[in-house]
Structures are given as C-alpha cells and as structure tokens.
Amino acid sequence: MNTAHCGECEWTATADASSQDINQAMIDHYVETRHSPVVRESVLREVLASADESAPRTDQ
User: pLDDT digits over 24-35, tens only?
Assistant: First the structure.
C-alpha cells in the first residue's frame, strides 16, 4: 500500500493499486494548496532499506 502525507496540513492519501494513483493525488494536493513537501512512505521505506543494505557492517 502506498501512503502519502503532507507535512504542512492534515492531508493524507492511500492507494492500493498503482503508484500512479498516489502520484496524481500528491500532484493535485500541491496544485490546490502549494504545500510541499509531501512524503510518500513507500518510497521512504525503499530508500531506508537500500541504505541499510549498503551500510558497512560492524559485527564482523
């Protein structure tokens, strides 16, 4: 599930299907309010997971 939220107001959007749905919702929110940034949580999870994989291990 994709989730996005705005750091400036209480706006939240979720989408189960494609990321296109959540992307359009974020664009629409920005156009209507000029609030930025809008955080997309599925992307944030991917970035954090990638950073964990590339971090040097200290337990070796």
Answer: 888 999 999 999
